[in-house]
């Protein structure tokens, strides 16, 4: 579980956090802003990483990924269903094409570079779509309840079980009570992914690479919503630190 202490003698990896542009009120201002829940920032910092906010400014560029040690694909708006051959279901939430444009390329570059990735909620769905998978347009229509959705601005507890022997189980154990807020979920699994966590109704709640290679953990829940459990972020930071140290050693040979 969480620890407030970080090893300050170890390198602090730079962790990228994509943001979204929303109209925001602060101080005397009411203006479009690049924003993200501060809980992500706090979680990265608590886990021993340096959080860097990444606004959507067009397709991500390789120069950006070269400056990161790890990436969190953050939660947010529904993905444009055209990206996975879907249709605009009446239950479709708001979409953010600027985020889609930026973050699909960001993930492609991260995957090519072997950058460790933690994908959260929308981020898990983005990874699945980027790898050729599809999404359930409105999960309550499939499972018959709204137990994953939470209310406006709220999370709902969902019991999640992990697959024994999976990387995800190695981080969070055989199961946990997750904080969820999603009305979509994985339908057809993307190429190269393994579903390694499920809710009791069969909803896919976690994925990772099937070949166990580059660090990728995708979770349908929100680890940033629980300030008592930073295991997933510490796993990402640890993988980012190990990658950085390996690359430094290789350059110094």
Your description of this structure?
By secondary structure, the protein is an alpha/beta fold. The chain is 29% helix and 26% strand. The protein has a 9-stranded mixed beta sheet with strand order 4-1-5-6-13-12-11-8-9, with helices on both faces. Strands 2-3 form a two-stranded antiparallel ribbon. Strands 7-10 form a two-stranded antiparallel sheet. A hairpin with a 2-residue loop joins strand 2 (20-26) and strand 3. The longest helix has 22 residues, at 231-252. The termini are far apart.
What's a concise summary of this model?
This protein is of the alpha/beta class and 253 residues long. It is built from seven helices and 13 strands.
Supply database-style keywords.
253 residues; two-stranded antiparallel sheet; nine-stranded mixed beta sheet; alpha/beta; 26% strand
By DSSP (H or I, 4+ residues per run), the number of helices equals: 7
Percent helix range: 25-40%
Spatial strand arrangement across the major sheet:
4-1-5-6-13-12-11-8-9
Cα gyration radius (Å): 17 Å
Shape: globular
Give the termini separation: 37 Å
Low-confidence stretches: 1-5
* Alpha-beta content class: alpha/beta
Strand content: 25-35%
Element pattern in H and E: EEEHEHEHEHEHEHEEEEEH
Q: Characterize the biggest β-sheet.
A: 9 strands, mixed
Q: How many beta strands in the DSSP annotation? A: 13
Query: Kindly state the mean pLDDT as a whole number?
Result: 93
